[in-house]
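Z., the sequence and structure:
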Amino acid sequence: MSYREGRFWQPDVTVATVVVRDGRLLVVEERVNGSLVLNQPAGHLEPDESLVDAALRETREETGWDVRLTGFIGAYQWKAETGRHYLRFAFCAEPVAHDPSRPLDTGIERAVWMTPAELDAARARHRSPLVWRVVEDHLSGRRHPLSMVQQLA
């Protein structure tokens, strides 16, 4: 596809949050095409929403946890087998408060805390290769200030 040919193309813009508590990672189990897969709290950017607000919202909606973002891990581009292209902006965060009575997003079975070793051992269940790559970068110390991600008014 080409803009010159008059066709429009854009990737799916998503956010993901690596939340760590006592050495464990907050992970969601979600149903995708009938399979139970693992992912960070993650989702699509909504119109007129900042990337930071999207990360906070998706984490709350998928896990019931309010978090404080502590850094920006990075931006990741991936093409799925379906041909869809994803551009993921990943953040790190610390948990602030949990509302166990909050209903979770449709498709989310539960939120669970896993050690990095447990998540690594379950790679066959990861929703995409983005899951481990983001965690791996976080564990290696990749952090950028949140000021690297800006929304202009």
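The chain has a mean pLDDT of 94. The first strand starts at residue 12 and ends at 21.

Let me know what you think.
H.
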